[in-house]
Design a protein that fits this description.
It is a single chain. The strands form 4 sheets. This protein has a 7-stranded mixed β-barrel with strand order 12-19-16-17-14-13-20. Strand 16 and strand 17 form a beta hairpin. It folds into 2 domains: 165 residues, no CATH class; 111 residues, Cyclophilin-like (Cyclophilin, Beta Barrel), CATH 2.40.100.10. It is mainly β. It is 9% helix and 28% strand. The chain is built from 3 helices and 20 strands. It comes from Streptomyces reniochalinae.
Length: 290
């Protein structure tokens, strides 16, 4: 345990340590990983005066609870949720003092999917390839939180900004996602009707979605022919189409290669809101720049 720490009192459905990821290792088969809602992660750190690279906790739907093993200051951003310290209501989107021994409880998301817990000094797990991020696909980084587990905290920053930013500016995911998409590189594997389906028909976020990809339910895309595609590199935001024809949007823990055709790519700046879309959210694609 480094400079005090945290003990998990309630792990939630899935709570992981995340930072801005480990870019530059795709040639080794290692995805970027990192916070799915990078904007919310950065905001949580700014509220405490941490560098944006400091590690946070990313919760999924049901939140989590941690006991402070030293006095600390925390901030919760991302999906709005009830926040309590030893059962007493505390502020969402603002610095919150947590005494030693107190339990910080982050409840279920009222909007969105993922909340972010930052602590002064950041979560201090052992870095792997320059990042503390949990990568569920490659199995790198710290394991997801388990009840009773302990995490370290780094040294608190020397100065904490006053009124540096406004968490109220965080935008809850819309009732319908309208995602820009750049067609290619394998859009020629689909008929004109299949491309028309992609750009005019509606989809819904599947409950099978995870940090690897946002799976969609809806009409299948018609292929132009049979055949197999040799494995090739997969970028963040790739819209890959498996044999059943329903698109999957690759998120931070996506595989770095794949053999199913990529009909298009959703720009990275549109993925924060996609990562906050709960199951059942309607989704439509629109040509980027349109």
């Amino acid at each position: 345990m480094r400079a005090g720490g945290l003990q998990t009192a309630r792990a939630g459905v899935l709570t992981t340590v995340q930072d801005l990821g480990r870019a530059g290792y795709a040639h080794l088969g290692v995805p970027r990983s990192g916070a799915l809602d990078a904007g919310a992660h950065r905001l949580a750190n700014r509220l405490l005066g941490n560098p944006e690279t400091a590690a946070t906790l990313e919760t999924t739907l049901t939140g989590c609870a941690v006991r402070a093993l030293r006095p600390t200051v925390a901030a919760v951003t991302g999906a709005p949720c009830p926040v309590r310290v030893d059962g007493r209501p505390a502020a969402w989107g603002q610095p919150v003092h947590v005494p030693a021994g107190a339990v910080l409880d982050v409840g279920a998301a009222t909007h969105g999917v993922r909340s972010y817990l930052a602590f002064d000094g950041g979560v201090d797990a052992d870095p792997v390839l320059g990042s503390r991020a949990t990568d569920l696909l490659s199995g790198l980084g710290p394991a997801p939180l388990r009840e009773g587990g302990v995490l370290g905290l780094g040294a608190p920053p020397a100065h904490r900004p006053a009124g540096c930013c406004d968490a109220a500016a965080w935008t809850a995911p819309p009732r319908e996602l309208l995602l820009p998409v750049v067609l290619g590189p394998r859009h020629d594997w689909f008929t004109s009707g299949g491309l028309r389906t992609l750009l005019t028909c509606g989809y819904r976020v599947s409950a099978a979605s995870n940090r690897i990809g946002l799976r969609l339910e809806g009409p299948a895309l018609e292929r132009a022919g049979e055949g197999e595609l040799a494995s090739e590199g997969m970028p963040l935001g790739a819209v890959q189409v498996p044999p059943e024809g329903r698109p999957v949007i690759f998120l931070a823990d996506h595989p770095t290669t794949g053999g199913y055709p990529v009909v298009g790519v959703v720009p990275a700046e549109a993925l924060d809101v996609a990562a906050q879309a709960p199951p059942g959210t309607p989704v439509r694609f629109t040509p980027a720049g349109a």
